[in-house]
Amino acid sequence: QVQLVESGGGLVQAGGSLRLSCAASGRTFSSYALGWFRQAPGKEREFVAAISWGSNGNTYYTDSVKGRATISRDNAKNTVYLQMNSLKPEDTAVYYCVADRYIVSMTSGNRYLEVWGQGTLVTVSS
Fold first, then answer.
1. 70 neighbors 83 (Cβ within 8 angstroms)
2. Contact 112/102 with Cβ under 8 angstroms?
3. Distance CA 4, CA 28 (A)
4. Direct distance between the N- and C-terminal alpha carbons of the chain, in angstroms, rounded to an integer
5. Which is nearest to 58 in space by CA: 49, 48, 68?
6. To the nearest 5 percent, what fractions of the chain are helix, strand and coil?
7. Is the separation of the CB atoms in 6 and 94 below 8 Å?
8. In what order do the strands lie in the sheet with 79-84?
């Protein structure tokens, strides 16, 4: 029902900023919680941020990015964003856009989500 395509990744110097975009398509887009996972080389995929489908757009973040990352969604454009500031080399990873009917599936770290994007690589140099 929902298809996700990420963009905006690239090479960024430590301390810099980057905004990832995820274009979503599907009739039920507004009913899905959206989020971001990431997978660093040699590590397991982990939860980064999520935003609920409701009008309030409640947001959730993993501790390692709190204060540096902001997730938002523009339903008119069917797009979800992840703004990341003060980037660190530890942020280097492939970032995946995700969608699921249940946001708890994301915030709990579950990897069995309904829809995954193809991923976009973020490399932070020092």
1. yes
2. no
3. 13
4. 40
5. 49
6. 10, 50, 40
7. no
8. 3-7, 18-25, 79-84, 69-74
Q: How many C-alpha atoms does 54 have within 13 Å on its Cβ side?
A: 7
User: What pLDDT, in 10s, does the model give residues 63-108?
Assistant: 999 999 999 998 788 899 999 999 999 999 999 999 998 999 999 9
The helix or strand, by DSSP H or E, that contains position 106, with its residue range, turns out to be helix 104-107
Q: Looking up tokens 């500031």, which residue turns up?
A: 85
Using the Cα atoms of residue 56, residue 9, residue 124 and residue 90 in order, give the sign of their dihedral: positive
The DSSP code for 75 is T
At residue 22, what is the residue type? Answer: C
Q: How confident is the model at residue 57 (pLDDT cuts 50, 70, 90)?
A: confident
List beta partners, residue 63.
none
Stated length of the chain: 126
